[in-house]
């Protein structure tokens, strides 16, 4: 054990506490440890304490917090930097380290994987440059193929997951359309089922870049290179105008009978360049990021933007989450992931900036349940997990051989990602309490 | 009466003066006694006692004798000098009657005494014997003697006769009077009344009976003139009364020639470079440690020529044994050659701090955003990427390569979307500038192909298909038909326009209907304009010189045509003569770009120079930038940001800030921002062959000879 060897250095009296459940708990006794131990040393100390009680214990990496800040240097330096007295007994909270413990088999696609969605715990949705959407139940087992698009799929979104039997999925494509698919994820077939869209949404004049669904599942919004954000209804009911267009399509024999077409309910205009990403976190609030260097918050009722954050860089991705689901994270044409807090008065400067990537950021996603954790994917082929409490990445997932184009959380403990190496990769076993 | 001998010694001269005085008052008794005492033998304390008595006696005799012959008043000295020979004395007395001359007792003759200054003797007597000097008393002894006897103070040393003379009271008095500047003799009256013996008037027999001349009573005019002249000179300052301070005639002995200012002011003077001072090793007899051993000498020979030491120290025991310099003749010949060929023009060297000449430029950080770092690469071409072009929104980028392929890439991800393969190397691609008209003009060899990229909406697609359908072509007149023929493109379903010469550059008009084509070897028929909607070719201009590139004005109906040396501006509505001619002063223009405002343009040349023209200012370049060591391949303005860029075959692209002010009084501001050099500098003529700005972002695309396209972001 490290403690026995480190007699020369100063000793600190610490107490390890945790919110974790029983197998991870240690007796609440004060122990003396050398002051120059790092995170690894602390982790081995905790592991050995647990092991002394529980001989079947498997070594587990931990992360340590003092007063809500993660320790990323030696304990001595940390105390010095934070101005904490080393005289009294320190209380160190430990959590399980946020790092993937298991790497699943990659699921090979026919082309670049441009979109990944892990909203549903039952399956993973992917979009691919071969213009097909796919549903993966597990790593390597594709259950459904969503076909119909004529261009590369740029984004996929889960529209309605409340319905246990059929699930509605929206795909956005570079062929300027969005398609809505319905399938039953529960049906157990060995071979993959091909699904055709039940509704085609036309109206964008250029490539659709992103799609996001309202919580209720009644509406989706999409953003496009034509600088607009369009809102669409997802229901199957055919209005008169739509049926006319269906007839027209029928005449051309290009669409199946079952497919209906939809037109945009409304259009949010204001961005001056390609709208690269949209999220619809609340009932009537849409966030969008654009290549015109801005992040905007739209009020769906009025169709006006209520917040406009200027960033200075072309933005590729935006997500809202964190504390009170209010923090805005965005990444774009530079290696910096920025986090804004719009609740702060007079903010235009980001409250957090994470800059460990070395190329464009293609995706960023907040963890659904944790206030602190988010992930970012970059063209440098890395996915990084971040905690707002430290400026260093918690973990770097470097499994892709090429650009990572999309990434998402799955089931709260996995990261799914797709990239230019045509693989869907799943890194699981991430412990976020 | 007295012809004094040349003055020899102070004593002697004293005596003569005294004699002069005696002249005045011949009856003075004291004078005689003085002269007698002068010649009396002076007591010499150093004389040994034996001779002392005898001498004293003789001196007394002499004094007596002197006194005895006092009445004669002459011849006394000679008698004294040589008392032994009485007969000769008598002769002397008779021979010079009035002689006061005293024959020296010292018989060395009339010679300067300093001849024997350092000798022990003072000279030789008649018989050839040395006359020895008396030993001089040293200071201490003379001091003691003075303190013993105050009379010693009045003794003077007669150098010539080598003896001491005691001054009498009278003589001392004379000396005192003379020191005061008075006549030596107390009785002499210097102010005796003047007796005018020659009064001319009232004389019975005047010396001259001439009337008194005027000059006696009129002031002299010539003197007045001279005085006036002097006064004038004094007033002018030509005559100065106080002497000017003499400057110290000091100079630096070891100062080199180069430091003298007077020489450097001359026109022909060129200071030679300072040479290093020789060290110990260059001595003819250096210490042993400077002399290389045989091994070291052998090692020198193995060294390359330029590393070998110029001088190998050698040791000679004497200066004599140093041989003649081996290269003396050769070097002097070389020096002559140098002088013969040396430049006769003096180069003016200006002593100005080069930093101060730099213009004050704003900081680069204030001029953000501009492209500085490469994040994305577009890989796939197998040959050099020669040309790139972006679409209206900046979502796609088209590229052409020497491998014959035209590709369309997605800017955002770097994905290659479409490939068209042709047989020839692609020379130029140009995307139509309209938003809903995604057609691509591709030039290769003699052909210009209009491709449908199929990236637009369905309605627009139909319009494009109609546009690119080559229905009934209007029959062109013969001259135009010889230049270009419109053909359908079987392979990709577009239009092919076949020219009579190789196409070198194309440019779309801003309205997307007209397309200018330049054929570098087409000479006067080198520039034609195609109209896509009417499938029509026009040849509006007669070009002088070889055209290089042609660019439409961004807002008005002008066409800029660059020939090899000049840029001409033509009005498209009135095409007879160029509206303007811009003289670049460059050897060969390679590219041309026009500021979106339309009044400024930049021209890149094959010698690596870039000129900025402000057309409101003049037809000469406003600024010439010489940055690239190799050919500039393309220059480019950003459509909305104040940026411009140049790409070159030296594998770099330069990004500049080029701000054009609305205020006509303010000249454009040009600031170099960034050198982008991530393209590989491969041996086979690498380089950046094209650069284009993103139409909406401050990003730059560069196409490299390393078959990559790179995107530089801000």
TrEMBL record, chain A:
SMART domains xref list: WD40
Keyword presence, rRNA processing: yes
An annotated GO cellular component: nucleoplasm
Region (Disordered): 243-264
Domain of life (superkingdom): Eukaryota
GO molecular function term, any single one: ribonucleoprotein complex binding
Keywords in alphabetical order: Nucleus, Repeat, Ribosome biogenesis, rRNA processing, WD repeat
Intervals holding WD repeats: 201-242, 268-308, 354-396
BP terms from Gene Ontology: maturation of 5.8S rRNA from tricistronic rRNA transcript (SSU-rRNA, 5.8S rRNA, LSU-rRNA); maturation of LSU-rRNA from tricistronic rRNA transcript (SSU-rRNA, 5.8S rRNA, LSU-rRNA)
SUPFAM superfamilies on file: WD40 repeat-like
Compartment annotation: Nucleus, Nucleolus; Nucleus, Nucleoplasm
Domain NLE: 13-79
Function: Required for maturation of ribosomal RNAs and formation of the large ribosomal subunit.
HAMAP family, per the entry: WDR12
PANTHER family: RIBOSOME BIOGENESIS PROTEIN WDR12 (PTHR19855:SF11), WD40 REPEAT PROTEIN 12, 37 (PTHR19855)
Family, per entry: Belongs to the WD repeat WDR12/YTM1 family.
Protein name: Ribosome biogenesis protein WDR12 homolog
Organism of origin: Arabidopsis arenosa (Sand rock-cress)
From TrEMBL, chain B:
SMART domains the record matches: BOP1NT (SM01035), WD40 (SM00320)
Gene Ontology biological process terms from the UniProt entry: maturation of 5.8S rRNA from tricistronic rRNA transcript (SSU-rRNA, 5.8S rRNA, LSU-rRNA); maturation of LSU-rRNA from tricistronic rRNA transcript (SSU-rRNA, 5.8S rRNA, LSU-rRNA)
WD repeats: 378-419
Biased composition (Basic residues): 1-10
Keyword match ATP-binding: no
Pfam family, one: BOP1NT
Gene Ontology MF term list: ribonucleoprotein complex binding
Region (Disordered) location: 1-111
Top-level taxonomic group: Eukaryota
Listed PROSITE patterns: WD_REPEATS_1, WD_REPEATS_2, WD_REPEATS_REGION
Cellular compartments annotated: Nucleus, Nucleolus; Nucleus, Nucleoplasm
InterPro entries the UniProt entry points to: BOP1/Erb1 (IPR028598), BOP1_N_dom (IPR012953), WD40/YVTN_repeat-like_dom_sf (IPR015943), WD40_repeat_CS (IPR019775), WD40_repeat_dom_sf (IPR036322), WD40_rpt (IPR001680)
Ranges of compositional bias, category Acidic residues: 16-31, 43-82, 90-101
BOP1 N-terminal domain sequence ranges: 116-371
Functional description taken from the UniProt entry: Required for maturation of ribosomal RNAs and formation of the large ribosomal subunit.
Family, as annotated: Belongs to the WD repeat BOP1/ERB1 family.
Entry protein name: Ribosome biogenesis protein BOP1 homolog
